[in-house]
Design goal:
It is built from 1 helix and 8 strands. By secondary structure, the chain is mainly beta. It has one domain: Cupredoxins -  blue copper proteins (Immunoglobulin-like, Sandwich).
Length: 105
């Protein structure tokens, strides 16, 4: 199931690029906000504010961003399904957060 989710999320990523939702700021030692709540279908805009290249990785490698160069590189990821999605920075498992996608009402 995680691989199917990965394929769906990556397939929908270009659709979210035109208008992104909330932003998660990435630093080498922290992410802000560490917990983010979304409506189903919203996209998150991950932005690297650090001075090193970073990559965001979903729990169990369910999804992975491209390398985000230092100084403001960004990436959009839509979340079309409800649930809680944990992520970390590649190579730094103690730095990460979670995206909580609320079910449609």
């Amino acid at each position: 199931m995680p691989r199917i989710l990965l394929v769906l999320l990556l397939a929908l990523a270009p659709l979210a690029a035109a208008g992104h939702g909330p932003t998660v700021h990435l630093d080498a030692d922290a992410v802000q906000p560490a917990r983010l709540e979304l409506e189903r279908g919203e996209a998150v805009h991950f932005v690297n504010r650090s001075d090193v290249t970073l990559r965001v990785v979903g729990a169990d490698d369910a999804w992975k961003s491209p390398e985000l160069p230092a100084g403001g590189a960004g990436w959009h990821l839509p979340f079309p399904f409800p649930g809680t999605f944990a992520y970390t920075l590649e190579g730094t498992p103690s730095v990460g957060g979670e995206i909580v996608v609320k079910p449609a009402e």
